Amino acid sequence: MRTFGRSTGPAGTYMSFITPRDPDYLRVKRIKQGECGVDPVYDAFIGGFRERYGVSPLAVLLDTVSQPRGQGRTPRLGGRL
Fold it and tell me: What is the mean pLDDT of the chain?
């Protein structure tokens, strides 16, 4: 289960942040400490990102939406939740 905090930002928008108990936070922390690595399937993506932007991503995390908010509608990105 994800644990998110929520605070109100400019113009009434919501900003979310991850807590130290979040599974993704813990995974990235282990990668940073050298206890595990990024899945090799992302090597080409990381290499292309490094070439284009001059920095390497620390981790690649995927997030999927299990259910859209309404029938026949696609989920909104950003804004109010």
Answer: 74
Could you count the other beta carbons within 10 Å of the beta carbon of residue 22?
Answer: 16
Q: How far apart are CA 71 and CA 49, in angstroms?
A: 36
Query: Of 60, 58, 76, nearest to 68 (Cα)?
Result: 76
Q: How many residues does the chain have?
A: 81
Instruction: Report residue 31 as tokens.
Output: 């990668």
Q: Output the CA torsion sign for 73, 81, 66, 25.
A: positive
Domain ranges in the chain are: 4-53
Given this model, what pLDDT does residue 4 score?
A: 46
Q: What is the mean pLDDT of residues 7-36?
A: 76
The tokens describing 72, both together, are 């026949």
Say if residues 78 and 14 touch (Cβ distance below 8 Å): no
Q: Does 28 or 76 have the greater pLDDT score?
A: 28
Residue 62 DSSP one-character state: -
